């Protein structure tokens, strides 16, 4: 008689992953501010769960670069500098250029379907611009670029991009506005769609890099302006 085989019960999704998703969302939407400490015990109490899965979730987000851990101090939301912004957007450009190359060399039907999906997202941007809803606009902006990468069906590329997109949202969420030329945003994204459907690879590659370079400039300027406003603000007793 063969020995007993014991199966380990598993959930459809690991509890720590669910917790990590919730915390990640709160970091991205600015509920947890850059530099803010996330206390393991407090999170566990709020979720009415043991501290083990929370600890695993925080470790996961630490590995993603959204949290930083300091010995004897605790876990904190990452604070991104202008150098970090440049790195994030340069990395995004590299992945998006790779995604675009995959799409233009792939099936025409997939390329056209992707272009239609991207155009639909572009159409959703103007109402957010009209309302000056910059966080909503940032969500649509990143949805556009995430959809471009996802269309390749390359899971590893999408996984890498998800972390970069989350870091980009952290940058945007904590600025009053990350868009110095919001009126041009619709046109810029539609241009990328048109280039994706065109036959000029060099123009598409250049367009993607220029789009990211503009974002680096605008975000860096916004961070500088916000820092200056903070420095000029009166000190309250």
Give an overview in words.
This protein has 237 residues and is mainly alpha-helical. It folds into two domains: 63 residues, Arc Repressor Mutant, subunit A (Orthogonal Bundle); 149 residues, Four Helix Bundle (Hemerythrin (Met), subunit A), CATH 1.20.120. A hairpin with a 3-residue loop joins strand 1 and strand 2. The protein is globular and about 55 Å long. This is GntR family transcriptional regulator. Keywords: DNA-binding, Transcription, Transcription regulation. Pfam families: FCD, GntR. It comes from Rhodococcus sovatensis.
What is the secondary structure topology, with strand pairs?
Blueprint: H1 15-28, H2 40-47, H3 51-64, E1 67-70, E2 74-77, H4 82-104, H5 108-123, H6 125-130, H7 134-150, H8 155-173, H9 185-197, H10 201-232
Antiparallel strand pairs: 1-2
């Amino acid at each position: 008689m063969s020995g007993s085989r014991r199966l380990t019960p598993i959930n459809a999704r690991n509890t720590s992953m669910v917790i990590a998703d919730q915390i990640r969302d709160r970091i991205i939407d600015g509920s947890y501010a850059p530099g803010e400490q996330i206390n393991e015990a407090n999170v566990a109490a709020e979720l009415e769960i043991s501290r083990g899965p929370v600890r695993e979730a925080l470790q996961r987000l630490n590995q993603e670069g959204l949290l930083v851990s300091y010995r004897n101090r605790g876990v904190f939301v990452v604070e991104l500098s202008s150098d970090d912004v440049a790195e994030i957007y340069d990395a995004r450009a590299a992945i998006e250029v790779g995604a675009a190359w995959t799409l233009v060399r792939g099936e025409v039907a997939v390329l056209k379907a992707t272009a239609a999906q991207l155009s639909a997202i572009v159409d959703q941007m103007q109402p957010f611009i009209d309302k000056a809803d910059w966080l909503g606009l940032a969500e649509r902006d990143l949805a556009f670029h995430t959809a471009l990468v996802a269309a390749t069906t390359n899971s590893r590329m999408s996984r890498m991009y998800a972390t970069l997109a989350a870091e980009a949202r952290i940058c945007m969420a904590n600025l009053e506005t990350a868009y110095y030329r919001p009126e041009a945003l619709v046109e810029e994204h539609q241009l990328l769609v048109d280039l994706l459907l065109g036959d000029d690879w060099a123009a598409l590659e250049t367009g993607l890099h220029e789009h990211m370079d503009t974002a680096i400039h605008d975000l860096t300027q916004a961070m500088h302006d916000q820092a200056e406003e903070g420095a000029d603000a009166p000190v309250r007793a």
